[in-house]
TrEMBL record:
It comes from Candidatus Dactylopiibacterium carminicum. The keyword Transferase applies. GO terms for molecular function: glycosyltransferase activity. Residues 134-204 form the Phosphoribosyltransferase domain. CDD domains: PRTases_typeI (cd06223). This is ComF family protein.
């Protein structure tokens, strides 16, 4: 970030210390700030299909630049650093398997790799859980959700995923790079629950702290 030597680390100590981190009281379901403990009003009124969200970083400033560099292939060396952040955020998960956010085949062909799969592989290896890379497919290449209202995002991702395996009784950790509105993660969680999953936890590198308007 600053151009100074960081030796064998992705970031020097000074830049690492300045990264926006997800601290304070956060909703245990969606990861947004709450005035106290427990669930936010939104999750109380309309519980999403997922059960919990963990995010070590806030999607802003240098973190946003780093995530975008990874997403577009310029910052692939950051994968290990991000995976370590995930391991520190949820070191002893109560789960049966890890699943990356699937990428549509057309998007995968264009990008060349799925950054969520790379993160999920490393996280799963670190916690000793199986990584289910091929058990859910994305059948709809959804448009970019930036700029859409919350309800528009939900409609855009509806029916996007298909399970190839039965997940009956499975507690699943879904790994992704960024959580914004949570619409895509909620749709994936609903698909997994429909296939029998007993619990779905989101584990993302970074979380935006503001939702799009309704």
């Amino acid at each position: 970030m600053c151009g100074e030597s960081s030796r064998h680390e992705a970031l020097c100590a000074a830049c690492d210390a300045e990264l926006p981190r997800a601290l304070g009281a956060l909703c245990r379901c969606c990861g947004l700030p709450v005035p106290g403990e427990g669930l936010c009003g939104r999750c109380l009124r309309r519980p999403p299909a997922f059960d919990a969200t963990h995010a070590p970083l806030v999607y802003a400033g240098a973190v946003r630049a780093m995530v975008l560099a990874l997403k577009h292939g310029r910052g692939f060396a950051l994968v290990d650093w991000f995976a370590q952040a995930l391991l520190c955020s949820l070191p002893e998960p109560q789960a049966d398997c890890v699943l990356p956010m699937p990428l549509h085949p057309a998007r995968l062909a264009s990008r060349g790799f799925n950054q969520a799969a790379e993160l999920a592989r490393r996280y799963a290896r670190g916690v000793g859980l199986p990584c289910r890379l091929q058990d859910v497919v994305r059948r709809v290449d959804t448009p970019k959700l930036a700029g859409l209202r919350q309800q528009e995002r939900k409609r855009a991702v509806r029916g996007s995923f298909v399970c190839r395996q039965d997940f009956s009784g499975q507690r699943i950790i879904v790994v992704d790079d960024v959580m914004t509105s949570g619409a895509t993660l909620a749709e994936l969680a609903a698909t997994l629950k429909a296939s029998g999953a007993s619990a779905v936890t989101n584990l993302v590198v970074a979380r935006t702290l503001r939702l799009p308007s309704r």
